């Protein structure tokens, strides 16, 4: 009888612990679900923005080769985009909490594996950005040797005006350095950065978005989230 009482107590305690862990898991799942929804929205926005940036890089490369040469205003307009950068950063703090607290174990195996995959993709993306930052500094350094930063700021202070682009195209503000070799080197880096961003979308941003969406579906199914 004593044995049965102890065994029954053990089962009851085990059941209580299971219920507590399930409730805790659902709290983590709900928070992670909301954060991943923010991540996917952010990723989709950045992918669209980056594709538009690549088009501007391609246009700059084409414009630089036009004959007869285009106005400096046109070069200033498109070269200004070479100074843009918009990396992705995850909104999810819940994954760090799950990992650091050891509570990833209370999630289902499938979800835990997908969380780990998402983290690996985030690290790979950050490594890619680390390489890009070095290349970006080189490209932007060349840009600042050719184009006057003060002129760029003054030109783009009016960019919300009607027909802004066409009006800038008619201008021909001076370059700091009009050496064709320096311009060619700069355009080479612009082409390289366009290729980088294209690969970044294909190899990192799109797969990361896909993994996030798969994880969202797993969380929705397992914990009946809406």
Task: Provide an overview of this structure.
The protein is mostly helical and 226 residues long. It has one domain (2-223). It is built from 7 helices and no strands. It has helices spanning 2-64, 72-79, 94-101, 109-146, 149-156, 164-169, 180-223. It is elongated, with a radius of gyration of 26 Å. Mean pLDDT is 86; it is low at 4-13.
Précis, in short:
This protein has 226 residues and is mostly helical.
Major pleated sheet: none
Taken from the alpha-carbon principal axes, the silhouette is elongated
Could you give the count of β-strands? Answer: 0
Give the amount of beta strand, in percent.
Answer: under 5%
Mean pLDDT: 86
Helix content: over 70%
Q: Please, what is the oligomeric state?
A: single chain
The count of domains is 1
Low-confidence stretches: 4-13
What pattern of helices and strands is seen along the backbone?
HHHHHHH
Contiguous helical run count: 7
Structural classification: mainly alpha
Distance between the termini: 48 Å
- Rg, Cα atoms, Å: 26 Å
Topology, pairings included?
Blueprint: H1 2-64, H2 72-79, H3 94-101, H4 109-146, H5 149-156, H6 164-169, H7 180-223
Helix pairs in contact: 1-2, 1-7, 4-7
Q: Main attributes?
A:
226 residues; mainly alpha; 77% helix; 0% strand; elongated
